[in-house]
Amino acid sequence: MTQSTxxxxxxxxxxxxxxxxxxxxxxAKLEKNTGKRFIEKFNLENKSIEEIYSFIETLEELTRDxxxxxxxxxxxxxxxxx
Length: 82
Description:
The protein is mainly alpha-helical. It folds into 2 domains: 1-41; 47-82. Helix content is 88%, strand content 0%. It is built from 2 helices and no strands. The chain is elongated and about 65 Å long.
C-alpha cells in the first residue's frame, strides 16, 4: 500500500475510535439523566441503593404481570373480533 492509502486508513480508524468514544459518552450521559429523572419521579433521593434496586425489581415484576395480562386479553379480543 502507498503511504497515502495507509494515512487514509489510519485517519478513518481514528475517526471511528472518536465516534465510538463519543457514543460511549452520550450513552453514559443518557443513563445518568434517565436515572436522575427516575429517582426524582419516584421520590427515591433519600433511599439506599438496596431500596432503589428493590423498587426496580418490584416495578419489573408488576410490568411483567401487566404485559402477561395484556397479552392474554389481547389474544382473546383478537379471536373474538375474527
